[in-house]
Amino acid sequence: MMACLPVVLVLLNTAANPKVQAAVDCFEQLDYRCTELRLAEALGGTLSDAERVRAYYYQALVAIAWREPARARRAVKAILKLDPSFNPVDAPKSLTTLFDENRPEKPRGWTPQFELRLRTTTPMDESGDALWWTGSRGVGIGGGLVNGSGYSLMLVANHEYHIARDPSLGLDELTRRSVDLEGGRWFFKSQFQIGIWGLLGGSYNQMKAQSAFGRLRALPQLDPFFGTTIGGGLMVKYQLTNALHIMGSSGGQMMFRSYQQQLRLSFLLPVQVGIRYE
């Protein structure tokens, strides 16, 4: 007797819900009004996901029989929400077409992306860098990966230069060459998207004095220096074609560097526009 118990339990678990089965019996007898009544009773009660999928499937079949494609589409969407992999067998072609049209796309894997950008970076600390340098002009080029969930990773090389704010001091320009690792996440899967970004990078910075100031050019304070940059902000993207986008971004950055054996911070505001292919 005990040996039969597991078999009985399996049969109970796999037995069809009686209300759903009553609807199926009505459908097989071509009594569609009876089918609709029984399905309404079944869907108004407690069903497992598998039983609910079965009920919605017969609801879609009845809608096809009544030539009501809008109702059939709603039932198909309800099925695919519960089971995106559901594939009808021996169904009318009009119903299989609805499944094909409404089946959610699989998330895209990691694919390459490339970007060419124009940028300007403004020093924000009025008592420091902003006292000496104007906003920069420069370009950047990058490449990386993006996936269907909106995550983005890109390595970007930038070249930009700042003009001295007061030429009478003898300074000419500051050239910055940087390499940044940028990560971000896009939101709203539409033609226009908004995202957030963060970066970690390094830069090689070289100041230059005017040729007329020979003694100034020899000062050790004008020696090239390296900086480490962290930052983050917002970005926007507008789709022009299937793979081409207009980009824009801005945010805040901090550059850490050593000056006379002491840590010095520079606060920067970058603004960028460009074209991205992905």
What does this entry show, briefly?
The protein is built from eight helices and eight strands, in the order ααααααβαββββαβββ.
Please give the structural blueprint.
Elements: H1 5-14, H2 18-28, H3 32-43, H4 49-65, H5 69-82, H6 93-102, E1 111-123, H7 129-132, E2 137-146, E3 151-163, E4 171-187, E5 192-209, H8 214-217, E6 225-239, E7 244-259, E8 262-277
Antiparallel strand pairs: 1-2, 1-8, 2-3, 3-4, 4-5, 5-6, 6-7, 7-8
Helix pairs in contact: 2-3, 2-4, 3-4, 4-5, 5-6
Largest sheet: 8 strands, antiparallel, barrel
Gyration radius, in Å: 32 Å
Q: Report the top-level CATH class of the largest domain.
A: Mainly Beta
Poorly predicted sequence stretches spanning 5 or more consecutive residues: 1-14
Give helix and strand order, one letter per element, not per position: HHHHHHEHEEEEHEEE
Helicity range of the residues? 25-40%
Count of domain modules: 2
User: How many distinct beta strands?
Assistant: 8
Question: How confident is the prediction overall: mean pLDDT?
Answer: 87
Number of helices: 8
- Tell me the span between the first and last alpha carbons: 65 Å
Shape: rod-shaped
Q: What's the architecture of the largest domain, going by CATH?
A: Beta Barrel
Strand residues, percent = 35-45%
Strand line-up across the major sheet: 1-2-3-4-5-6-7-8
Quote the CATH topology of the largest domain: Porin
Can you walk through the features of this model?
The chain is α+β, with helices and mostly antiparallel strands and 278 residues long. The chain has 2 domains: 16-102, Serine Threonine Protein Phosphatase 5, Tetratricopeptide repeat (Alpha Horseshoe), CATH 1.25.40; 111-277, Porin, CATH 2.40.160. Helices cover 29% and strands 42% of the residues. It contains 8 helices and 8 strands; from the N terminus they run ααααααβαββββαβββ. The chain has helices spanning 5-14, 18-28, 32-43, 49-65, 69-82, 93-102, 129-132, 214-217; strands at residues 111-123, 137-146, 151-163, 171-187, 192-209, 225-239, 244-259, 262-277. The protein has an 8-stranded antiparallel barrel with strand order 1-2-3-4-5-6-7-8. β4 (171-187) and β5 (192-209) form a beta hairpin. α2 (18-28) runs parallel beside α4 and α5 crosses α6. The radius of gyration is 32 Å and the shape is rod-shaped. Residues 1-14 have low confidence and may be disordered.
